[in-house]
Structures are given as structure tokens and as C-alpha cells.
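Repro:
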Amino acid sequence: MKTYIPNLKEIKRKWYLVDAKDKILGRLADKIAQILSGKNKVVYTPHIDTGDFVVIINAKKVRVTGGKEKKKIYYHYSGYPGGLKERTFEDILKRKPEQVIRRAVKGMLPKNKLGKKMLKKLKVYPGAEHPHQAQNPEKIEV
């Protein structure tokens, strides 16, 4: 019996809408990463991008547990001496709330060209409005 490998033309991509209001960041990112990589489909193949598009709304209302609002620190290093920047979860949530979810999901995807391709299918918005109504995203609960 031969192993079935899907062709890129055969893959049907769907759009999903996820409301991040009062959701735990890590658990939300885990489910989204599975959808983006296509692990929720029967035609999943590790070396082919079989995932779907995900639109996340209300990113500024995502939660973390255990007092991580003040304890969780995000680092960015410019490469120059003294170029290490530190920001807390609270600070980033106020400035760029979509970056919090994007970074969490990126950490759960493959670290290669395929992972970058999967991350492009993630659309994150801080409020309840989004410009993807024409794609008729299916609302799912994660």
C-alpha cells in the first residue's frame, strides 16, 4: 500500500476566527499553532504546509496566570554592546497586544522556512474589528 502525500493544489484552506478575550495565552497559542500547521487535518504531512488561516480578535484581553503580568520578561538584543532591551508582559500588552500572541505562536511552530510560511497565515488584531469578513471565517472556541 502506498503512502498518500497531498498535492499543494488539493489542499483546501479554511479561515477560522478566534476570540482571545479572557483566554490563557499558552493554551490559546497551542491550539492556534496546531491549526496553522495543519495537525488538525487528516491530510497532515510534516514537510508540506497543510494548515489553515487563523484570525484572532481581542488580543489585548488575553490573560496569563501566576502573576506573569509583571514577572514575564521579553528580551530583544540588537547585537551591539549594551543593546539588550527588556520589556514586561504588561508593557508589551499596552503597546502592541498582537505581538504577545504572535511571539507565543511563533515559538510553537517549526524554526525553518516552513514555520515562517505558517506564521504568515496568522492575523492578529487588538480589538473586535477585522478586515477579513469577505473570507467568511468560521468562529471556533479554543
